[in-house]
Structure formats: structure tokens, C-alpha cells
Design brief:
This protein has 17 helices and twelve strands. The chain is α/β, with parallel strands linked by helices and about 400 residues long. It has two domains: about 200 residues, Rossmann fold (3-Layer(aba) Sandwich); about 150 residues, Rossmann fold. The strands form two sheets. The chain has a six-stranded parallel sheet with strand order 2-1-3-4-5-6, sandwiched between helices.
Length: about 400
């Protein structure tokens, strides 16, 4: 893909998108609702933070009384990212199941039970079937290809207990699946379920804009994520090694990648925290998001790239799946299909601070226009109203 050529990607439009600007939607939004959000993770977990927690104050302003019950508490979340400690993990899981079942005892007090991922990450959907048979309104939210089996990096037991077929049954069982992108939505409808797309918001109010890009100090190339996905940097290892040799003054940083190392590239690793993430984004000039060419990557909803965009960090990403809808090549980031694409994009951005600055400003403005949390919360409220209307 030649550098600077605009990638002609037309965003997918669908009748399944929620049109919350309609008068009927505005009328419905005046009715108070009570929603039980059942998340997989506490606020430290990115998928739960982005798919539920960030919308709560905006939903409250729209008349939604929300209660959140996380399967994992903060201690269990930290434990889940560690290798081994199987007995401790089993004990934490049993306690988590008890907490979840206890929270569900009052399911009739809520208009909607909103499941961010499955109620339990193992076994058949027995609880979901039981709730559905008794009249509960169930919504299932997912932003990863959970119906594709992937081994756990941390626990062979977790790999054994994962049940992709359970997710396919949930598509048919629930009143509505809320998907992070159109590919995930279409996967749910192909199984016979009703599904809509709700793209992930990004709150630029929490992320300061990057200082003006210059080459007066060394350029920093960064990656932000988790130990389970840092391995994808190895997909572009030869390119990064060439870039590091060609530009010896570069700084290289990883946040959240654990003990990842790469010969010839002096990565500096940092543990992730919500506050430290903001400091890291302020240091990064270029943000990487390589993904493998496989169906699992089609299910990714662009969270890493969108965060880079919001921070004024230039995203350089694999040209696969939702990334092609999120980014405009050469305008809000770079989309790479070949090794040469990666090398050309990185070389150009390292050398040209003005190019980085133009893209940074355009990308942040795009996030503000397309992914405002209040706007996406209104779309979520519209989904609630339309599902309840269909059940009336």
C-alpha cells in the first residue's frame, strides 16, 4: 500500500444500527429504567471498563438506574493475570460464582439484565436459560470473537473450561446481542439471534492531548495492551529490528506486556495502571497495533488504536477487520498489509514530525466526533427501549 494513498474503505451501514435521534426514541428515553449490569471484570479490565463502566454516569442522566456486579473483584483480576496458582484461582472462582448467584437473586427488580460476556466463563448457559424461561429480559454484550476457542495464556484449566459453543447458544437465547463491531454482529445474526452494533466509545475528556509533535527529542514508539496480546509484536519483529538499527535514538516502550523481550529492540516494559496509562500515552509518539491474519482478529473492536487516536498518538495498525473502518489511511493513522507497509509508515513518521502532528490532530477530532461516551450511552439507552418495546 503506497504511503499517503487514502485507503478507500466505506464504513458498513446497517439497519441494525440504533437511530437514537428519532422522536420515538426520545419519547421512550423519558421512562426510567433499572438495569443490572453483570460484567466480567472490575474497572481495571479494559473490556468491562469500555463496554459498561464508562457509560454509567451518562446512562444515569438518561434515566437509567444502574447496578453493576463484577464476576471478578480486583484481587481476582490481578490473580487471573498470573501464571500458575491453580488452587488459588479455583478458590477465587468459587467465591465469584457465589457472589454472582447472590446478585441474581433479585433479578426481578430490574427491567434488563445486561450481561457483559457470559454470566459464568465455563459450562453451559444454565443460568441464562433459567432466567429466560422465567421472563427475564437478557442482553448479551461482547467485543471479542468469544465463539472461537483460544487457549488461556495463564491457566490450562481455564483453556479446558472455555466453551465457544455456549456463546453461539447465547446469541439465540438472549433478547439482543450488543456487538462491538459489524463482523461480530453478523456472527450473532448468522446463528439466528437478534443483534446490533454498538461501537466502543473513547472519552477524550480523560485523555490529555499529546504535546505538539517535534523531533527535538527522541521519538517514542509504544505499545499498550496486556500479556495475552503482546505476542503479536513478534509478527513485525524483523521490521522493528530494522527500524531500531536504522534509528538508534528511538525510545521503545511497552505498557501491560509483562516480561516481553525482542532481540535488537530495547523495549522498556511498564506495568499497567489506569493512571500510568495516561502518562505512557503522553510519552508515545507512534502506537503499534499488529494483529494476525485470522478470524479472531476480525472480532477485535479497535480499542488500542482508538485510544492512540484519542491521545494524539499516531496509530500504525494491521489492515484487518474493524481497523479498516476505524482508520483513514494516511489521515488518522496507517493501515499496513505487508512488511514493506510497516517499514514505510514507521520510517515516514519517525522522520516527519509535521506528518505526525497533522495525523494526531485529525485523529483526535475523529474520536471526539464519532465515539463520544454520551452519544454512545444514548445509543445504548435506545437499544434498551427498543428491546423492551419488542417484549411488551
Amino acid at each position: 500500500m503506497p504511503l499517503g494513498r487514502r485507503r478507500a474503505v466505506r464504513p458498513v451501514r446497517s439497519h441494525c444500527r440504533i437511530r437514537c435521534h428519532l422522536p420515538e426514541a426520545r419519547r421512550l428515553m423519558t421512562r426510567p429504567l433499572s438495569v443490572l449490569f453483570m460484567t466480567r471484570y472490575p474497572v481495571e479490565g479494559a473490556s468491562s471498563r469500555y463496554r459498561v463502566y464508562q457509560y454509567l454516569p451518562h446512562l444515569q442522566a438518561l434515566g437509567v438506574k444502574a447496578e453493576v456486579q463484577s464476576l471478578m473483584d480486583s484481587d481476582m483480576y490481578r490473580l487471573s493475570t498470573q501464571h500458575g496458582r491453580t488452587l488459588s484461582k479455583i478458590g477465587a472462582t468459587l467465591r465469584a460464582v457465589v457472589r454472582r448467584l447472590w446478585a441474581l437473586r433479585r433479578w426481578r427488580d430490574y427491567d434488563i439484565v445486561y450481561m457483559q460476556r457470559e454470566l459464568l466463563p465455563f459450562g453451559p448457559p444454565v443460568i441464562e436459560r433459567w432466567l429466560k424461561a422465567r421472563g427475564a429480559v437478557l442482553l448479551f454484550d461482547y467485543d471479542d470473537a468469544l465463539f472461537i476457542h483460544k487457549r488461556s495464556r495463564y491457566s490450562p484449566l481455564a483453556s479446558l473450561l472455555r466453551a465457544p459453543g455456549k456463546v453461539r447458544e447465547l446469541f439465540r437465547l438472549v433478547d439482543c446481542t450488543v456487538a462491538g463491531n459489524n463482523w461480530l454482529r453478523d456472527a450473532a445474526t448468522a446463528e439466528g439471534g437478534h443483534a446490533v452494533t454498538l461501537e466502543v466509545a473513547e472519552d477524550t475528556a480523560r485523555i490529555p492531548m499529546h504535546a505538539p509533535h517535534t523531533n527535538e527529542q527522541p521519538v517514542t514508539i509504544g505499545w499498550l495492551g496486556s500479556p495475552s496480546t503482546v505476542k503479536y509484536l513478534s509478527l513485525i519483529q524483523p521490521i522493528l529490528q530494522k527500524i531500531a538499527a536504522r534509528h538508534p535514538n528511538l525510545r521503545w516502550e511497552i505498557m501491560g506486556g509483562g516480561t516481553f523481550e525482542m532481540p535488537g529492540v530495547p523495549w522498556r516494559g511498564h506495568d499497567w495502571s489506569l493512571q500510568d496509562e495516561l502518562a505512557a500515552l503522553a510519552r508515545y509518539d507512534i502506537g503499534l497495533m499488529p494483529l494476525p491474519s485470522e478470524d479472531w482478529a476480525q472480532g477485535k473492536s479497535g480499542g488500542k488504536a482508538r485510544t492512540y487516536m484519542a491521545a494524539g498518538v499516531v496509530p500504525v495498525c494491521s489492515a484487518i477487520g474493524y481497523n479498516n473502518e476505524l482508520l483513514r489511511h494516511g489521515e488518522t493513522g496507517f493501515l499496513c498489509q505487508t512488511k514493506q507497509d510497516w517499514e514505510d509508515a514507521l520510517d515516514a513518521l519517525i522522520l516527519d514530525a509535521d506528518l505526525r502532528q497533522r495525523i494526531a490532530v485529525t485523529a483526535r477530532a475523529e474520536v471526539q466526533a464519532r465515539f463520544d461516551p454520551a452519544k454512545q450511552a444514548a445509543a445504548m439507552r435506545a437499544i434498551f427501549d427498543q428491546v423492551l418495546e419488542a417484549r411488551a
